[in-house]
Design brief:
- The protein is α/β, with parallel strands linked by helices and 516 residues long.
- The protein has three domains: 3-163, Thiamin diphosphate (ThDP)-binding fold, Pyr/PP domains (Rossmann fold); 184-315, TPP-binding domain (Rossmann fold); 339-514, Rossmann fold, CATH 3.40.50.970.
- The protein has helices at residues 3-13, 28-33, 47-61, 71-87, 101-104, 114-118, 134-145, 159-163, 184-195, 211-224, 253-260, 304-315, 339-349, 363-367, 390-400, 412-415, 421-427, 443-451, 460-464, 475-481, 492-503; strands at 18-21, 40-43, 65-69, 92-98, 124-127, 152-158, 200-204, 227-230, 237-239, 247-248, 265-269, 293-298, 354-359, 377-381, 406-411, 432-438, 486-489, 509-514.
- The strands form three sheets. The protein has a seven-stranded mixed β-sheet, sandwiched between helices.
- Helix 14 links the parallel strand 13 (354-359) and strand 14 (377-381).
- Helix 3 packs across helix 15 (390-400).
- It starts with a helix and ends with a strand.
């Protein structure tokens, strides 16, 4: 057994089921070790697809995947979606190939500071010293990635450590600590706040937005009159008809300030107080009212379900009945595609138990609020803001949950960052519908131009940095070239029909929503 075999054996012994890979010369022994039937290797044509897919896998499985990246440049290509995963508290184990120690001293062309690249976006970084330590190093990486909240672990694998003999080494099983219990005195203090009758909002995130914790939060809301909310972007919300609904704090600063102006107590679970995504001239970064107080019910590393159970007990609300989201009327849209008709089409076209991965920055900002009453589904957002996120994440969710349809919503500007994900979806025949909202522009930047005070409208040169026409991207040809059949729609009724048709298919489909 060589080091690469020991690494893969330890990954699988530690619960890793899948490796999203983009290998190079230095990783050939690891590639050979992936012949093991205990792990599923998935080829991605760009490292940002590997890391985004690992993020999507974690969001649905609550357990880390591994990636295989080629040296420092390969890691660098994957960093944007590692950033998004870190902000979403998604765990992953990144295996980064490296030159052998004897070769590094000659400064070959691909030499780079891999630790320096990894550290800003990793919670744990280790370079394997030799094949004898590789099992321990790998087990430690998986244990770190499996913590709550999920962590980014980066293991650097020199070529000689991969090919050296690792016979006689064992696969240790480091324990992953359980989420911390919240302090009971803090729970009692928050219960007192809620009994006061002053306007309060519970803001839930991460694991707190799953069905079980939502039921408990719904009891608190029913018994105290507090409101239940979420940040505009959340890692994964279980939502839809019959579930306890959350109000989404608006993205735009003026609307968020208006939304929160009467709230005197913001009570957070696995998140922090609402903050603007960007700084704007003459607008605050913090969006609560000046006299509002922020209380932490469950910190990032604490058990939010336990915190809510303790709060329900402290308030004596075990028998309270939560308010549930009523089913939306199934309106069949027609005519022009706009925020409302798109919303109606999505509401009618999201199948039960679907996974909706939303990166529709312009088109979806208004539309998604209208889908609260759709059939029960999970919604996944981009917490990190680095675009080119949703096609890779949808690839990961499609592999994590092959029995559920993933609806990937993405703007044309964002999609061009990681469109290679379609190829992996085709090769693996994943149940993913990619909806590209094609307005031939980074349209969100036109609004942000004015919001930033740069001027009422962009000038000719500024527009040339925002519009992505000349040439216009042919999305159907793009999808076809990677094995994903597609259809172009220009009306709301055609969009709904395309969604329903895609739901009936087993493999991937692409829908180009043409916006004018």
């Amino acid at each position: 057994m060589n080091g690469a075999n020991a690494l893969v054996e330890t990954l699988t012994d530690s619960g890793i089921e899948i490796c999203f890979a983009n290998p190079g010369t230095s990783e050939m022994h690891f590639l050979a070790a992936l012949e093991s039937p205990r792990i599923r290797p998935v080829l991605c044509l760009f490292e940002g697809v590997c890391t985004g897919a690992a993020d999507g896998w974690y969001r649905m499985r609550d357990k880390p995947a591994s990636t295989l990246l080629h040296l420092g440049p390969g890691l660098a290509n994957g960093l944007a979606n590692i950033h998004n995963a870190k902000r979403a508290s998604s765990g992953m184990v990144n295996i980064v190939g490296e030159h052998s120690a004897s070769h590094l001293r000659h400064d070959p062309p691909l030499t780079s500071d891999i630790e320096g690249l990894a550290r800003p976006l990793s919670h744990w970084v280790r370079r394997v010293e030799n094949a004898q330590s590789i099992a321990w190093d790998t087990a430690a990486a998986v244990a770190k990635a499996s913590e709550h909240p999920g962590r980014i672990a980066t293991l650097i694998l020199p070529g000689d450590s991969a090919w050296q003999d690792a016979s006689g080494t064992s696969s240790p099983k480091p324990t992953t600590p359980a989420p911390k219990a919240p302090d009971s005195a803090r729970i009692d203090a928050i219960a007192k706040v809620l009994r006061s009758g002053e306007p309060a909002m519970l803001v839930l995130a991460n694991k707190a937005t799953r069905d079980g914790p939502l039921e408990l939060a719904g009891k608190v809301a029913a018994g105290t009159g507090c409101r239940l909310g979420s940040q505009f972007f959340t890692a994964r919300i279980e939502r839809g008809a019959g579930r306890v609904p959350l109000e989404r704090i608006p993205y735009a600063v003026p609307q968020a300030i208006a939304f929160l102006k009467d709230i005197k107590h913001i009570i957070t679970l696995e998140t922090r107080e609402p903050v603007a995504f960007f700084a704007y001239p003459d607008r605050p970064s913090l969006m609560k009212s000046a006299d509002a107080v922020v209380h932490t019910l469950a910190a990032d590393d604490e058990d939010s379900t336990l915190a809510l159970e303790m709060l329900v007990d402290a308030l004596g609300l075990g028998g309270a009945v939560p308010v549930r989201q009523i089913a939306a009327e199934r309106i069949i849209p027609s005519g022009k595609l706009d925020a409302i008709s798109i919303a109606y089409a999505l509401c009618a076209g999201i199948p039960e138990n679907a996974i909706v991965v939303d990166e529709s920055l312009t088109s979806g900002r208004e539309s998604m609020s209208y889908t609260l009453g759709a059939l029960p589904h999970d919604m996944i957002n981009n917490l990190g803001g680095s675009i080119g996120y949703s096609p890779p994440v949808a690839t990961g969710t499609g592999l994590a949950c092959p029995d559920r349809r993933t609806i990937c919503l993405v703007g044309d500007g964002s999609a061009m960052y990681t469109i290679q994900a379609l190829w992996t979806q085709s090769r693996e025949q994943l149940p993913v519908t990619t909806v590209v909202f094609a307005n031939n522009s980074y349209n969100i930047l036109k609004a942000e131009y004015a919001n930033m005070g740069a001027g009422p409208t962009p000038g000719t040169r500024a527009l040339s940095m925002i519009d992505i026409d000349r040439p216009t991207i042919d999305w159907l040809a793009m999808g076809k070239s990677m094995g994903v059949p597609g259809v172009r729609v220009e009306t709301a009724e055609d969009f709904l029909r395309a969604l329903l048709d895609a739901n009936a298919e087993a493999g991937p489909r692409l829908i180009e929503v043409k916006l004018y």
